[in-house]
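Re: the 140-residue chain
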Amino acid sequence: MAVIVRDSYGCLCGAIAMRATSLFSVLATELYALKICISFAVDASFTPIIIESDSLTVIQLLLQDDPCYTAEGPLVDDIKRLIALFSSYSARFVPRTANGVADHLARFSLGQEDLAFWLSNPPLWLQDCLLADSPICYDV
């Protein structure tokens, strides 16, 4: 799983890569990574935020008004509480293949045992991806 935080110019503010363990569902891992990044965005006072995910289920869970009664419901509730701290936000589905940085981070996460997090100094391979990838907006 990978989450990227960029500023409105597309510059990296932070990135997270983590492997989904067999103890948790892929959906729970995706939601957990998103929760960490949104918490980071809250602490860094980023506003507004744009949430992009390659999981259509994640986006649907965030945008629905009904309570989430699945095992991942508490994570969804936590994310919704964090999102409510922003004056405005949007959330949309973006296939991973449409975001080169997220794709490379997701591939990197497959070999990770623990969470990997970078702020302003990502590894060279990630810097190369950032230069090649020029998004219109930033991911959270």
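Helices lie at 26-43, 56-63, 73-83, 100-109, 124-132.
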